[in-house]
Amino acid sequence: MNSLVARTARIPKLNRFGWLMGLYAENHARLARLFAPADLAAGHYLSDIGDGLALRVDVIEQHRYTTQLRLTYAMPDPLTGEPDPSAYLRLYHDTRQLEATHCYVGRRWQDVIGMYPPPAELISHRMRMNTFLGKWLEYLAERGHGVATLHPQREMPIEIQKTA
Asked: PANTHER family from the entry (predicted)?
């Protein structure tokens, strides 16, 4: 009986921060399989699978160790006129992680939870955003989006230019 208790006591527990880092790694793998963004030049891309919801992938900046992107549907929010849903992403090539930095135009974490949130609240907010991102990426893959459906766009529509 003591050996059973001793074996279970050695299993490390995953804290919320560790869970978040694992989520970043899973989302990196999902996005890399979908669109291989590390290989894309800065610019605007459209993935259209013929369902009426074209997905826009904007590669905002491409650096040696990071890529900044935005995923959104090419449809505006009726209240703000901004693309919605919209997720701004930071892809870390060296650590193979993908972080959703904010999920709505003008709604960075500071706008949602304030300038000085407790660390637990900040981690909870990031977990919600990145869980949303993971589910969205799974949905996109199930619908058929991917490298084969992604095509460069010459110009952005006006409503998207305002926020880029």
From this structure: CYTOPLASMIC PROTEIN, CYTOPLASMIC PROTEIN-RELATED
